[in-house]
Amino acid sequence: MATLTDMLLLLVLLANFAVLAASRLSFTIRAAAAQGILLGLLPLAIHGLWSPGNVGFAAGTVVVKGVLLPGFLLWAMREAAVRREVEPSLGPMGSIAAGILAVGLAVALSAHLPLTGEGVPALLGAVSFATVMTGLIVLTTRQKAMTQVVGYLLLENGVYIFGLALSGRVPLLVEMGVLLDLVVGVFIMGLVVFDMNRELESLDSGRLSELRD
Hints:
Blueprint: H1 2-21, H2 25-47, H3 52-79, H4 92-111, H5 123-141, H6 145-163, H7 172-200
């Protein structure tokens, strides 16, 4: 199980770099969807407990993070007639360099914050911090509001990964509540993006300064 867990965590990291390097919004959303599916499999790989509750939570995570939310974003992208090309303030190479720096900082940070939970892999802390930092990079370097929503998803994914270290002590009801908050947040942001495109005929978040009472 340890080898499978490490492989899943490395694939999560690759999904981060796929988002950073993407030049098409649709690919960015699909990379986030792939990461969501990987996150659904992580609890089963880490703890190896195939109880009905754990399997149900893993399936719910896959459905929400890998299917429902990305599907909603793809629908909003089509309905709002969003240009598929993202417009980052950092180019692909600059974004990848920032991602590599984030991984280095995440490894250094996780070394000073050891996770001592039973069965917690060594890579989990580094990958969680790297995913949070990648989400922040996307949020601060992308101009399109839709891409910034993906950055929010990545940031929450990083928090979710870190929470897996405590999943043995966190009630399932609390975890499901956090997942519900994510669903509500993304749906609200999707509706804001749709209305923003209708009013401003653009999804450049910089144009929000043009709004007046």
